[in-house]
Amino acid sequence: MTEGKLSDGFRRHVARAGEDEVITALVRTTPLEPGRETLRRLRAMTEGERLATARAELLCLVTERYGHGEAFRKNLRDELRERQARVLAAAPEAYGLWLADAVAVSGTPAELADLARHEDVLRVEANPVFRIPEFAQTPIEHAPGPVDGSAWGVAGVGAPEAWGGFGRGDGVLVGHLDTGVDDTHPALAGKVAAFQEFDALGAQVVSTPHDSDAHGTHTAGTIAGRTARGVNIGVAPGTRLASALVLPGGSGTFAQIVAGMQWAVDEGAHVLGLSVAAPGYHPIWNLPVLNAVLGGVAVVAAIGTGGQGDSAGPGNDPLAIGVGATDPGGLAAAFSGGGLLSPAWFGHRIRYGKPDLSAPGARIVSAVPGGGLAAVTGTSPAAAHTVGAVALLQSGMPALKGDPFATRAILLGTARRCGEAGKDQRFGFGRLDAYAAARQAAAFR
Known about the structure:
There is one protein chain. This protein is an alpha/beta fold. 32% of the residues lie in helices and 22% in strands. It has 13 helices and 25 strands. It has helices spanning 8-16, 36-51, 55-59, 69-90, 109-115, 152-156, 159-166, 215-224, 254-267, 286-294, 379-396, 404-413, 434-443; strands at 23-28, 93-97, 102-107, 123-126, 129-131, 136-138, 173-178, 192-198, 204-205, 227-228, 231-232, 240-245, 251-253, 271-274, 278-279, 298-302, 312-313, 321-326, 339-341, 344-345, 348-349, 352-354, 357-360, 364-368, 372-377. It is globular.
């Protein structure tokens, strides 16, 4: 009976571990079965997006209401804490992941095998490791020059025009899930409203704001940075960050990342920017992304750097806003992922395309630890531009806070069309246009 509860992934992990080595795993206590009506409506939304060929067909989704916001999150947390209490008490060490309906546990292989005998344990799974997307750093002198005082990507998405009449991201909190952040950088001073580091189990680590790599500071600068060396580097310079260090040195476990996501949600984040792009489709992301968006928080993630025909999770999850990369000429970057997917989503086959839209991702100048600047190429910078655009959009129309579905519809519906009518596998619905999105949101007031 116990053997049947151990997933193949967990068995492989145990086979590689020493007898006395402490490892981490995920414990499920219930089948993953969200409400059928909710799933039906969300499947219809995804299918509708795939078939949309006109802007109006996307913008009509702005009036739809799917989630329950803060009340949903509270009820979910309370229900799962009660349901998981006995497993939490029985585990050698454990941390509750309410966003993923799981318990992260650690112990020796023998201790975790013993835990699997617990009557409340349905399944024991591996706690997989995920990494930041591949990226390249180029000499800053090789990056395109500023456009009217702004980095080319910031200017390219129309952020400066949005600042003039629709806000600069003020009043919006961004959940920044990355390698950390250097909050002493002049462009980011005062931007970090909260900081928390997490270990492989998902437990909080006592530390002060810092970047374990350089990736997190770069994405933070593109999202919220001020002027640096006379150049505007951030899309939403008025927004603030709840920065979670969940990818120390560039990689972290699923439990680590989800713990950071739920911490940022509890801090009041309106949008989550996930700097994770694991090649392929990973159903393990389905539940945390679903619960985040039903809880009123938009989820933005890079689509990965595998090129056409390939995509990465969680950016290829149906409900995540998956972002591809464009170059300074407006073309889809060769490395940028995308493709058609037809996975089983909570037991139901669903067909859709990724990315959802594209944004500047080649030779993007932003902050790096120590007060400097660097030019980086990848889909992470593209996702960071999109996170900043969400902040601008919700700053200009505060009613969109807590409504990731309307936010998504406006963002996709106002993208500048490229390639095929509707959604294609290179640009999604087109190139990000923060100014057009802000203007469209104002029209819905």
